[in-house]
Amino acid sequence: MAAVDPTPAMQRQLYLAAYDISDDRRRCRALALTRGHATGGQKSAYEVWLTRGEKRELLTEVAPLLDADDRFMLLRLDPRSTTLLAGRAQAPADPGHFYIG
């Protein structure tokens, strides 16, 4: 039996997007795609809030950038988990709107 996603289609979920891409040009393109959805992050790991459609779109757009040795991971973070902060970090928050373009 398939698992049912109880999240409404337009509700955003918090994910961690991370990648390891060997080619500089493809890595820059993956960075631009990921940063278009990011609310925070560093180097090649970003916090992204995505609806189901945005998740599907991001995965579809990043797939052609990957070679056999490259990696792209999108991990849904449990909203019940406590966010640990260090230094000047801020807890991830789903903003009221995003500009993707």
Describe the overall structure:
The chain is α+β, with helices and mostly antiparallel strands and 101 residues long. The protein has a domain at 24-76. It is built from 2 helices and 4 strands. The protein has helices at 24-35, 52-62, and strands at residues 13-20, 38-42, 45-50, 71-76. It is globular and about 35 Å long. 12% of the residues are buried.
- Sheet bearing the most strands, described? 4 strands, antiparallel
Assess the beta-strand content as a share of residues: 15-25%
List segments where confidence is low: pLDDT < 50 over at least 5 consecutive residues: none
Overall mean pLDDT stands at: 79
Provide the spatial order of strands within the biggest beta sheet.
2-3-1-4
Q: Could you tell me how far the N terminus lies from the C terminus, measured between alpha carbons in angstroms?
A: 38 Å
* Broad shape: globular
Q: Please state the CA-atom Rg, rounded to the nearest Å.
A: 14 Å
Strands, count: 4
Helix content estimate = 10-25%
Q: What's the total helix number?
A: 2
Summarize this structure briefly.
This protein has 101 residues and is an alpha+beta fold. It has two helices and four strands.
Blueprint of the fold:
Elements: E1 13-20, H1 24-35, E2 38-42, E3 45-50, H2 52-62, E4 71-76
Antiparallel strand pairs: 1-3, 1-4, 2-3
For the structure shown, list the relevant keywords.
101 residues
